[in-house]
Design brief:
- It catalyses: (R)-2-hydroxyglutarate + NAD(+) = 2-oxoglutarate + NADH + H(+); (2R)-3-phosphoglycerate + NAD(+) = 3-phosphooxypyruvate + NADH + H(+).
- The N terminus is likely disordered.
- Strands 1-4-5-7-6-8-9-10 form an eight-stranded mixed β-sheet. Strands 13-12-11-14-15-16-17 form a seven-stranded parallel β-sheet, with helices on both faces.
- It has about 600 residues and is of the alpha/beta class.
- Helix 5 crosses helix 7 and helix 14 packs across helix 15.
- It has four domains: about 150 residues, Rossmann fold (3-Layer(aba) Sandwich); about 180 residues, Rossmann fold, CATH 3.40.50; about 130 residues, D-3-phosphoglycerate dehydrogenase, domain 3 (60s Ribosomal Protein L30, Chain: A, 2-Layer Sandwich); about 80 residues, Alpha-Beta Plaits.
- Helix content is about 30%, strand content about 25%.
- The protein has 17 helices and 27 strands.
Length: about 600
């Protein structure tokens, strides 16, 4: 039998009466009512339990059997435990120790982790009581969100916990690079007094280019503006109106590169942004520019940056992130003009505490059966059973609007038609926003943060209802309007007893094709042999057409074809199809 004892740090402990023997056959020790108590259980699980005695005269042992169990699997601040409140039993386990984690998790109602503990399908399967997995941090690479969703387990993180720390670190790098702080420090430590060797440059009166106006980019812009700098920015997913509200001049990347005295990068890393600041981009910058990357490694080509500094074109740089981490060898490390840090953007006590308390609040809400703001998956949420099947279709319609728009819409309208209009459908607007932003936002887009993300990017959203639906019992229509007035309108429905998701309209053209998998949308001038050319080019590339529908324009010679494919289409094949049929627009859209 494992030996268990409670300690409260104040006064002697006394054995609990025999009637307080736990159902597991372990002895408990009591403490003063209302005091904090700690239980250390020897044995293979080495679980530490923390609870608070409820009130005087309450003879249940602390952490009584009715309290939900919160299992903390990584090192977290005491503030996290305090934020959980006294209505839970907190246990600790060495999460990276797989055997101990699997032994402890079956009793857990909630699991709190940081980056060291992996929560995969095996761990989730071993936790039949689990209601929520909380990652005290921004990333979710160590949590199998799909597996959690399949089991109805909420997954939350703390997406805003480190934004202030990250913004401040970027500014620190910019200041250090502009004043040669690191090189001057190293020189003086070598007992050399060389004031004339370390002349810097002011930020006041300069032009600072911010590449990426997400939460962190906006914070950097606001803070740098206080130095008296002129702020310009590049972000294809922020509207000019929103940038104007922030007092920022929005422009193309090439324009920013040509005008900025300082450039700070704040983009997510995607296939489109990887290597964005490469040799060609650096050649477009002003001589003497200073470049900072505290966002994601690989956004700036490090070898090209080193060459540009050696040549004298780039004055200095500050980097906190690298293409491969941990990074202990880089050509940048040899250059005194470069300030480097080992990915410290979120490494502040405040950010760590904030991450813990943020997810603790989510855990409290989940265990109380309340709505959880930072949930990143749908499966764990509670939605009206009539509306629930439409959630993913609305998301896919948002994805389709984003793909077919030349720029991020400034307004998104969702209209629910037919029988579904009798239900509470506000969540479908949020689902459409999730789809609209899913390809451009690095952080998970949730039902709660979707409106905030839309507001940050100057996108208004509304949902309306109409009882009439001539062709379908119910239908969802999603309409995006760009700043120049151009419109993208798509609609979908659920068909048959299996509620099959279908695309039924794209920009006024009728379709009846399942909303799934990889899709190719082509608008072109219809002419004899056009379809054959498309099929031939796809077939030659080994791309199979699983389904296809053609819809001719009501007026004129135009037509739109929608094809569902078994794989993505290579860039060269896309170009070949565009040229072969004179396509006005060709987009590959993932509706998985």
């Amino acid at each position: 039998m494992a030996a268990t004892r409670w300690a409260d740090g104040g006064g002697p402990l006394r054995p609990a009466p025999p009637r307080w023997r736990s159902p597991l056959g372990r002895w408990r020790w009591s403490a003063a009512p209302g005091s904090a108590a700690l239980a250390i259980t020897a044995g293979p699980m080495a679980v530490v339990r923390c609870a608070r005695l409820r009130r005087a005269g309450d003879h249940r042992y602390a952490g009584g059997v009715n309290l939900p169990v919160v299992l903390i699997a990584d090192k977290l601040a005491q503030s996290t435990v305090a934020a959980l409140g006294d209505q839970v039993e907190v246990r600790w386990v060495d999460g990276p120790d797989r055997e101990k984690l699997l032994a402890a998790v079956p009793e857990a109602d909630a699991l709190l982790v940081r980056s060291a503990t992996t929560v995969d399908a095996e761990v989730l399967a071993a936790a039949p009581k689990l209601k929520i997995v909380a990652r005290a941090g921004v990333g979710l690479d160590n949590v199998d969100v799909d597996a959690a969703t399949a089991r109805g387990v909420l997954v939350v993180n703390a997406p805003t916990s480190n934004i202030h720390s990250a913004a401040e670190h970027a500014i620190a790098l910019l200041l250090a690079a502009s004043r040669q702080i690191a090189a001057a420090d190293a020189s003086l430590r070598e007992r050399a007094w060389k004031r004339s060797s370390f002349s810097g440059t002011e930020i006041f009166g300069k032009t600072v280019g911010v590449v990426g106006l997400g939460r962190i980019g906006q914070l950097v812009a606001q803070r740098i503006a206080a130095f008296g700098a002129h702020i310009i920015a590049y972000d294809p997913y922020v509207s000019p109106a929103r940038a104007a509200q922030l007092g920022i001049e929005l422009m193309s990347l090439d324009e920013l590169l040509a005008q900025a005295d300082f450039i700070s990068v704040h983009l997510p890393k995607t296939p489109e942004t990887a290597g964005l600041i490469d040799k060609e981009a650096l050649a477009k910058t002003k001589p003497g520019v200073i470049i900072v990357n505290a966002a994601r490694g690989g956004l700036v080509d490090e070898a090209a940056l080193a060459d540009a500094i050696i040549s004298g074109h780039v004055r200095a740089a500050g980097l906190d992130v690298f293409a491969a981490e941990p990074c202990t060898d880089s050509p940048l490390f040899e250059l005194p003009q470069v300030v480097v840090t080992p990915h410290l953007g979120a490494s502040t006590a405040e950010a760590q505490d904030r991450a813990g308390t943020d997810v603790a609040e989510s855990v409290r809400l989940a265990l109380a059966g309340e709505f959880v703001p930072d949930a990143v998956n749908v499966g764990g949420g509670v939605v009206n059973e009539e509306v629930a099947p439409w959630l993913d279709l609305a998301r896919k319609l948002g994805v389709l609007v984003a793909a077919l728009s030349d720029e991020l819409p400034v307004s998104l309208s969702v209209q629910v038609r037919g029988e579904l209009a009798a239900e509470e459908v506000e969540v479908l607007k949020l689902s459409a926003l999730r789809g609209l932003f899913s390809g451009v936002i690095e952080d998970p887009v949730t039902f709660v943060n979707a409106p905030a993300i839309a507001s940050e990017r100057g996108v208004t959203a509304e949902i309306t209802k109409a009882t009439e639906s001539p062709n379908h019992r119910s239908m969802v229509d999603v309409r995006g309007v760009a700043a120049d007035g151009s419109v993208v309108n798509v609609a979908g429905t659920l068909s048959g007893p299996q509620l099959t998701e279908k695309i039924v309209q794209i920009n006024g053209r009728n379709f009846d094709l399942r909303a799934q998998g990889t899709n190719l949308v082509i608008n072109y001038i219809d002419q004899p042999g056009a379809l054959g050319k498309i099929g031939t080019l796809l077939g030659a590339a080994g791309v199979n057409i699983q389904a296809a529908q053609l819809s001719e324009d009501a007026e004129g010679p135009g037509a739109t074809i929608l094809l569902r494919l078994d794989q993505d289409v290579p860039d060269d094949v896309r170009s070949a199809i565009t040229e072969a049929v004179g396509a006005n627009r060709l987009e590959v859209v993932d509706l998985s």
